[in-house]
User: What shape does this take?
Amino acid sequence: MANRHDVSSADAMQRLIDGNKRYMEDSLSDPKIKSVQRYEFTEGQSPFAIILNCADSRVVPEMVFDKGIGELFVIRVAGNIANPSSIASIEYAVEHIGCNLIVVLGHEACGAVGAAIASYPDADNGPNLNHLISYITPAVEAKQGAEISEVVKCNAEINGKKLVEDSAIVRKYVESGDLKIVPAYYEFKSGSVDFLQ
Ligand SMILES: [Zn+2]
Assistant: This one.
């Protein structure tokens, strides 16, 4: 087993909760973007959490959790889906960096989830969007007739489970108890992240 990060899943969660509170209260830390901070990261990286995030420009994890360079390992793809590319990126952070927490962060009024709802059951949007939507359709099926917010939450839960199902590396560390996967929901106005587990 590879070495684990010295920040546990519980401690990582607390850091995210505390950072989100500062974000909601308009008390963000100074951004770590000066040259001296950049130099600190030339030797390597050691982010303490992985965020599987939508591409939506309104959901910026480093701001939402009040974090700087090198603190979060962020994968951005519309609909925060667990497909082979996003899973491969996550496997790197789990196996080689030793991250112990993955947050699958859905958000209010997600356009990708809206497209999946509008396309259900069988609209053809071309191969690329069809591929993306195919990862969201299980949530659309499970929550037919529900508000989009419910579909977004279900989609975060389903794609969180998919990380375990489709990745032997993720499964290994979830089963050992080191790695935790938490679906979450981001709301625009309040800026709050509601952790769903
Ligand atoms: Zn979205």
